[in-house]
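Why show two proteins at once? Because comparison is the fastest way to build intuition. When a single record is shown, students tend to memorize it. When two are placed side by side, the eye starts asking what differs. So, the first record is below.
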Amino acid sequence: MQRLKYLHHYNEEIRHQVRQLIDQETLGGYILSRYPECHPYATDKTLYDYVVGFKNTHFRQSSPISKVYYDTKIRDLQSALGTHTFVSRVQGGRLKAKNEIRISHLFKKVPEPFLRMIVVHELAHFKEKEHNKAFYKLCTHIEPHYHQIEFDVRLYLTYLDTAMHPLWAR
């Protein structure tokens, strides 16, 4: 029986359905039928513009973002699809905050909803540091389908574990 590391906290019925899709070699087709197109944000510059646009729409009051980029060093997808950092330093008589978001390079060629879910997640950490009820409420306020998209991202990561090649090519 296959271990579905990205889906371990879902119920057995869902894991069984995913195993069937894997056994029938139709998981990739299922994902492609739901998300046929790849997003256009392939460079760090376009990613930065995308994230800042999102931030300016939904998080106007939070500190500016100093850096956003695809990170090739995020390899342990079990623990992170993206990361956010906050650096505070004293500059003169003021406290200056620097926010940075890094997104795994695996998300350069995925559908826009996958990227949006990760961006929403990382931006939500600017307001809520912990993964608590308020955090997920904020995520679903910004992206009403947050939980479904997160599940679909987990399906894609499961697909990558079994197929070892991306679904979307440019």
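Second record. Ask yourself what differs from the first in the token line.
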Amino acid sequence: MRKLALVLLLIPLASACTWVKMAPGAKDVRVARADQNLSACAKRGEVSVSVKNRLGPYDRNDLKVRDELETLARNEAPSLGADTVQPKNQPVDGEQRFLAFRCGTASVSTRAPSAPAAAEGEAETYPIAD
């Protein structure tokens, strides 16, 4: 009974852990926003990545799952000769597809799309860096 209680206690803690590590060369891979214009870049392919989004009956933290998917895509990019990845779709059940591009020194549009002004009492966010 003690072992079962210990396992049940550890599952929620493990669900918050990050299991994916950055590979050599992946730290130089840029992640573009899904709406970012990469027409000045050469498309190098597509990457499909997946991680566990559930541990038993527990859902893992969505932000951690997204972070791990992004890291896996960045890990794959150098093997395609890509220096930039862009999400092709939203994650579904721990799986996501990314487009891989070679941008080099190409000018990449970093302007955020215009959005309606926030209503009174709502927060408005801006990216601080690309």
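One difference worth noting in the second protein: The radius of gyration is 18 Å.
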